Structure to design on (104 residues):
C-alpha cells in the first residue's frame, strides 16, 4: 500500500477509533453498575454515578467486554457513515432541479 493511501486511511478512521475508545468507558460503566437486568443497570448507571467512576480514568478500559462494546459502537458508527455515503443520490449541484444529464 502506498504511503499516501495509508496516511489517508488512518486520518479518515481516527474519529471512529476515538469514539470506540470512549465507548469502552461506557461499557465499563454498565459492567460495574449494580443490578441483574438491563433496567436495573440503566437505573444504577444514571442514578448512582457509575459514569463518574468509569470516566474518572481518561484511559480506555482494557477489560475484554468493554473492548468489545467499544469495537461494536465504533464499527456501527463507521458502517452507518459508509451506508449513508453509498446511498447518495446523483444530483447536479448548482443546476436547476429536473435538468436532464444528457441536455446540452
Amino acid at each position: 500500500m502506498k504511503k499516501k493511501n495509508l496516511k489517508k486511511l488512518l486520518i479518515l478512521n481516527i474519529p471512529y477509533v476515538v469514539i470506540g475508545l470512549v465507548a469502552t468507558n461506557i461499557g465499563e460503566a454498565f459492567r460495574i453498575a449494580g443490578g441483574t437486568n438491563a433496567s436495573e443497570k440503566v437505573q444504577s448507571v444514571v442514578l448512582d454515578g457509575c459514569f463518574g467512576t468509569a470516566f474518572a480514568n481518561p484511559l480506555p478500559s482494557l477489560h475484554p467486554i468493554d473492548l468489545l462494546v467499544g469495537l461494536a459502537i465504533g464499527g456501527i458508527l463507521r458502517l452507518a457513515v459508509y451506508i449513508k455515503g453509498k446511498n447518495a443520490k446523483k444530483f447536479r449541484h448548482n443546476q436547476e432541479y429536473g435538468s436532464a444529464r444528457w441536455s446540452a
The two ends are 41 Å apart (CA to CA). The mean pLDDT is 86. Helices lie at 3-32, 38-48, 50-54, 64-86.
